[in-house]
Structure formats: C-alpha cells, structure tokens
Amino acid sequence: MQSLPPQNEYRNLLDTKLTELALYAKELCPEAVVDVSSVPCEDEDGHLDIFPPPSLSEAEEERIELAIAERAAELFEQTGLYIPCAVLDATAGRVSEANG
Description:
alpha+beta, 54% helix, disordered C terminus, single chain, 3-stranded mixed sheet
C-alpha cells in the first residue's frame, strides 16, 4: 500500500478512481444505477453503490459485487484509496434518491 499524495493530488486521484469504478460498474451492468460519493466517512475515502434492475438474478448480482470488489481492492493496493462498493436493492435506490 502506498501513502496518499498531497491534498490537491489526492482529490484528483480520488475523482479519477471513483470515475473508473463507476464506469466499470456500468460495464458490468449497463442497466444499473450507480451512485458515487467522494465524501469521506470514517476510514472511507469515498464509496460506490450499485443498484441493478430488479429483474437481475441473484447470481448476476453476486458476480457484479465480486468483480467490483476485486477492482476496488486492486485500487487500494495501488493507491491506498479505500473505496467500498456495494450492490444494493433497486428499491433502496429510489428511497435514497427521494431523500437526496
């Protein structure tokens, strides 16, 4: 794990890696809604929530979750950025959007 760069470089790196993860999530499931946050929370540098369509099978959801988690782990090893990713129920996304 590398140490994080100075603040300005850190923000640019974080934005770049969040974008990469979001694009990868859309590649894995184009129909998904992807919610990205660069707001740090506790030990997180940001996070990514993926809301697949309700018609997606549980096996497909698991495939997406494992793939995005693997990519996030690789980014952590390369950059030191801790960006948790979750695949969530699509109805939770609508609740989140209504509150946001």
